[in-house]
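Worked example 3 (structure in, sequence out).
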């Protein structure tokens, strides 16, 4: 019996492969699931049934705190019936007697004793043969990982590895960290093995190769002035910026003078949009498995918080239903601050095309409603016309989708303002 003939005669048959079939009822059947996973069902001539899930992963790839549960169910006259189940706790590799390598599968075997212990209906159906509806349930769960004392101690014992190019070949430079910039030294092998993001980053145009040697003139470490980054170009604020400020109040970053080193080369990435503390914590975690989260600390002073609350309270009296007893500064209060600022300066363009408006639907709707209600004033402002020139030049990411939403909002506002027709 060939696989092709079987598939053509029964179109509803799963896309498996019947590799062997004996006249005594034994068979081997394989089903490719995808991504290296496959299901294998084997029945021997004595009636024992083995169902295995092959994952093809290296031992330990799923981690050391993994629990695997495999359950086999039969759809009988009264519904689903549990036939057998197995559990694997942690790493329990077995030996594949055929290949001599570690076992890369989980399996359930139904022997004669297991079949006799099942219900009479299942036993009768199994011994009779024919079509049976079986359900195999595989559940893989991983315990929540937590850092150990050893991991924390290891992290604390490695304070200088990121400050020196020795044994490292990648330099991450942060031009806006500290008064003269800050740097982190790491190695490409760690980054590439840890994440596809870092692997792509090292191969992209953001990474440049630097050669230091006796035959080349000595150069000083790059300074922050080499890379210009104004506050207006920052898309979003990194919460670790405040941690950077706190860190550098007592420990100013120093740049390693590579001109005194022998000949060597490294790759350099200038990081503009992510805080130094963020990368430092990530690399520490990749090296040791330990991460310490920054304390919650706000850079806003009490006076700033008070003035913001007073402005919200004062402005709410003039708006119908806008006052709220909620003391939290949420999305609506932030939006009111923006609209108040635009009302005071009508020549300002609406902040429709910043990163926050692109990413957050609720925030974008607030700005869209404001612009649509005051479309004549906003569209006539010089700043808005300048913004439109940037949009036409394709210099604003996400502008196309926002413009479509804006035109829809303007049309709805104009229709709402029209007097009702008799």
């Amino acid at each position: 019996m060939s696989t092709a003939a079987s598939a053509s005669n029964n179109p509803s048959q799963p896309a498996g492969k019947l590799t062997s079939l004996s006249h005594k009822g034994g068979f081997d059947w394989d089903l490719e699931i995808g991504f290296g996973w496959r299901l294998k069902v084997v029945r021997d001539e004595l009636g024992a049934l083995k169902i295995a899930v092959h994952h093809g992963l290296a031992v330990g790839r799923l981690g050391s705190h993994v629990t695997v549960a495999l359950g086999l169910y039969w759809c009988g006259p009264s519904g689903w019936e549990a036939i057998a189940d197995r559990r694997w706790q942690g790493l329990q590799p077995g030996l594949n007697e055929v290949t001599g390598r570690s076992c890369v599968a989980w399996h359930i075997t139904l022997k004669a004793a297991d079949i006799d212990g099942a219900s009479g209906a299942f036993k009768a159906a199994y011994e009779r043969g024919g079509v049976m509806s079986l359900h195999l349930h595989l559940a893989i769960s991983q315990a929540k990982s937590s850092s150990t004392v050893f991991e924390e101690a290891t992290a604390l014992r490695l304070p200088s590895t990121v400050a020196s190019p020795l044994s490292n070949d990648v330099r991450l430079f942060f031009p806006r960290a500290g008064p003269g910039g800050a740097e982190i030294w790491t190695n490409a092998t760690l980054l590439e093995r840890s994440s596809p993001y870092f692997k792509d980053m090292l191969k992209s145009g953001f990474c440049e190769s630097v050669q230091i040697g006796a035959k080349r003139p000595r150069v000083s470490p790059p300074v922050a002035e080499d890379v210009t980054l104004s506050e207006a170009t920052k898309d979003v604020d990194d919460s670790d910026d405040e941690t950077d400020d706190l860190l550098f109040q007592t420990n100013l970053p120093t740049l390693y003078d590579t001109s005194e080193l022998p000949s060597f080369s490294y790759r350099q990435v200038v990081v503009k949009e992510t805080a130094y503390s963020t990368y430092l914590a990530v690399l520490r975690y990749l090296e040791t498995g330990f991460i310490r989260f920054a304390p919650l600390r706000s850079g806003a002073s009490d006076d700033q918080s008070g003035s913001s609350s007073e402005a919200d309270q004062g402005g709410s009296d003039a708006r119908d239903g806008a006052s709220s007893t909620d003391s939290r500064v949420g999305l609506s209060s932030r939006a009111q601050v923006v609209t108040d600022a635009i009302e005071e300066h009508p020549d300002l363009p609406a902040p429709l095309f910043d990163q926050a408006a692109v990413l957050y639907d609720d925030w974008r709707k607030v700005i869209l409603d404001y612009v649509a209600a005051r479309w004549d004033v906003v569209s006539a402002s010089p700043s808005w016309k300048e913004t439109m020139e940037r949009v036409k030049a394709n210099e604003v990411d996400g502008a196309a989708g926002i413009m479509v939403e804006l035109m829809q909002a303007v049309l709805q506002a104009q229709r709402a303002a029209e007097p009702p027709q008799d």
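Notes: Residues 86 and 419 are 72 Å apart (CA to CA). Residues 149-288 form a domain with the Potassium Channel Kv1.1; Chain A fold (CATH 3.30.710).
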